[in-house]
Structures are given as C-alpha cells and as structure tokens.
Amino acid sequence: MFFAASLISLLLLVSPALGQANLTAAHNLTSLEGTWSSGSRQVVTGPGFANPNNRTFIYPPTAGVSYSFTDDGFFESARYRFTGNGSDPHCILGAMVWIHGTYQLLDNGSMILAPFADGYQQIQDPCAAQSNFIEQYNDTELYISWQIFQDPVDGYKLHMFQFDGTPVAPQFQVSTTPNMLPTQLLVNDTPSFVAQSLLATNSGETWTPGGITALASAIFTVALGSFLL
Length: 229
Fold this sequence. Notes:
By secondary structure, the chain is mainly beta. It contains 2 helices and 13 strands. It has one domain. Helices cover 12% and strands 34% of the residues.
C-alpha cells in the first residue's frame, strides 16, 4: 500500500492532469464517459449495486466489475470478486467493493481514482474467525494504463491495468450515460465507522442472500482466473 501511494505521489508531481488532450487514439476511440461492465455485465454501478446510506449491497448473480465515468471528472466503481484458496478449495474469499469520487487522466496514459470518504467493502470468508463483515474502503487507486478497443461483436471495450500491471477484467460499454449515484459525499460519518459483522452468531449462515448462488459460479470463475481485479 505504501509503494502504491508513493508511486501515485510521484506521478502527480511529474505528470499533471491535462484531460485527454495528449492521450493517444487508443484512448479516444470513443468517450470514456458512460458505464462499463465486464463479463456477463451483471455487475453495474449505481443504485442497483450499493446503498451507501446503510452500507449494504445488492448481490448480482455473477461476479464482475463495473466502472462509470462522467465527462467532468467523476467516477464510480462496483466490484464483486472471488479469490481461491489453493490449500483449501472450500475457503473462497468473496469481496464486494463500492467507491466513488473524482478521477484524473494523466498525459502519460495513466489514471488516478481519488474516492470520496464514504466507500466501503464487504468481505466474506467462510473459513475465517469472522466470516462476514463490512469495513471502510477509501484507497486512492492508480491504473498505469488504459485503452479502449473496438470489439467486432460487442462494441467498445475498456482495458485497464492496475499500478503493478495486473489487468482488470475487460469491460464493455453498457451505456453512454453514466449510471451512478450522486457525485458527492453521501455519508459523512465515516470517521466513526466501525467494521461490523453482518451475521447473527447463532445463524449458522456464512453467505448473505445471493451469495450461495454466486459462490457456485465463482468456483468456476476462480479456476479460469477470468476476474483479475
């Protein structure tokens, strides 16, 4: 985390944000504005994914990732992912992440997302002592490169690469109008936010509604390694 923060600081010093003026044709094939979603496009930003007022999620039927961008510098990100456990295939880690805030496109082709202070994530680990909890997530994120391609079947496709070069799952443009919650701080009590368990201690459940169905598909997804988030 320290390395990523230091790298972001360095980039901000040497490469001021100048919009898309100095970016290549691969960035301007179509506007970044709109909503993008990976895979089956079941994960989409907006009110159908997260409710930050009570810090809950609406589980989509499959894992995936979605980003929305406005043309005046705001973004929203919705991510539903699973990570396999090589030593125990039953211990699949599930994570739901929602953030929104502002973004900058640097003239070296990178992108920086700076969240407002109301992002959060839900972690589900059936093999952990605390199997289900919600916590703050407000990390600034650096994507060292991004490009838009024209898919002959599915139209425009967005490729993004994290600070270490790891690719995000390719996303297809599902709307040219961004599907987003209001582009402002929605919950301002985050300093007092405490990670909280979502499970009753005697419930015997380890997955919230929708999680069990998603878990079945996630085993196949993790095996293919198709969601590199």
